[in-house]
């Protein structure tokens, strides 16, 4: 910040009131450096608090017990209450649900009872507000420690000291308990794990008993429903004379039997009819009777046929030996005729017998047909009745099946309540921890310090955002609406160097000389007969503005110019001397009477004056123009310290007639709103700022 400023080549623009919220890296660094006290103070405060916390807080120890959850469940019976199917996510949801169960009131209250934590002062501690309330009301402290309140306090404290989570990528639940004693932490972790297993076992047993009770309560109702259904079926049978045997109606069985008998009778009738027709056909055609099976089975015909065959053989022999007319031969032939007659007679008898059998079979068939027709008419009459009967029987069978299922299920569930089907087990019991929980106290202090740095930086940015200050030339240029002519070194505020010697003095003189040259070359029209440079700033920068005015006057004098330095802060400067600026602007004195010697032969000084003079604003512009005309005879340049334009409104005549109006600001100190206020005040007085002189934060 101590180098040369980059001079703007653009014309001077009016003030810009649009606030640029962007912050460059250099500006951010400037904020942190400017607010370093706040940042370091916050860091030290947090480090001290962390150190005190680490020294005062008693050490804590954590112990962890691991519980494995099998999402498939233990299938003790084939039809268990608890489902054994695996969820699509591999059981992760079920395990996450069990994490909540471990932290539930039922498990923790069981653990509190098992460990008798209500008698432990670390878990059942009465709060300060409760003790204060008891003392104010004059009550004994034990009155506040009722059983329910003690259990509630213990439960709340245990839940604070408990951490339950599922381990990554496994179906294992970590139960971690923190306590002031290592052995106590391990004991409580194991007790909570055991309480969870006992709670799960009891919950499953209770569920089985509840289900068995519900089923048993329904058995009587189902039994009554079965009895009612069976009574309805029997009553309907009796009302409609539907007698059954072996589950089949008697009428249906009789009809089935008649149909079977009728089919057999028809077969017999057909057989007898074919037998009669065959025998009659043989008789009518005169063929040999050996062609039928009936004849072949007749012993009489067989005997006659044997005799006839023997006789035919004798006739053949006798015909060859005795001749055709031999009496013995004729007698044999006559005997053969007699045998044939006997065969025909036997065949006629067989035909008569077959006809009789046929007639009997036909009569039997007709009888069966008659009985079939009768039974069929009876069956058709009961068809509609049987439809309702079958409906009643279906209802009865359904109720029977439901009752049987209820009875079987009730027995299964009742037996399941006596079996431990918990699907969880402790795979790693908690052991007494050795190392205490949390970081060491020195590390805690270091972390607090660095955390304080971050918090302090955030607070610094927040404070800066609430009240932004000038951090860079860019922000000053945007706030003033004018170019930054130079960035002066911060050493200018340390006081004027009497000998004006040394490299820093020469650099400052050269820098201000360039500013004066820039002002003289950039003027497009003259507002006064003499070069007038007016300086303004916020009231907080009054000292910086005065130093810049003195150095600017000294620099002009070092260039051989005659300089008049005027203190024009009409609102805050104290009246001095017999005559001054107020006397000149009120018309009671001339320039020659108000000028005083200064520290340099080339520089003259005009104080505020005004001990008895009254400044009339309506005549100020006329007398100001006369002042500049008088100054043109004796001076080359006039440097005016106009103070804060927002309060020094009576300096409007000086502002209106000045050649150049410069605002003085300090980096990391002057608020941007104050710079914008100076630009706005100059605009109200009819002028725009010509430029800005910035004093850097460093040397």
From TrEMBL:
Membrane topology designation: Multi-pass membrane protein
Coiled coil region boundaries: 361-409
Tyrosine-protein kinase G-rich domain: residues covered: 386-462
Major subcellular location class: membrane
This protein's GO CC annotations: plasma membrane
Lineage: Bacteria, Pseudomonadati, Pseudomonadota, Alphaproteobacteria, Hyphomicrobiales
GO terms of molecular function: protein tyrosine kinase activity
Keywords of the record: Cell membrane, Coiled coil, Membrane, Transmembrane, Transmembrane helix
Name assigned to this protein: Polysaccharide chain length determinant N-terminal domain-containing protein
Residues spanning the membrane: 37-56
One Pfam family cited in the UniProt record for this chain: Wzz
Gene3D superfamilies: P-loop containing nucleotide triphosphate hydrolases
Subcellular location(s) per record: Cell membrane
Every Polysaccharide chain length determinant N-terminal domain range: 23-112
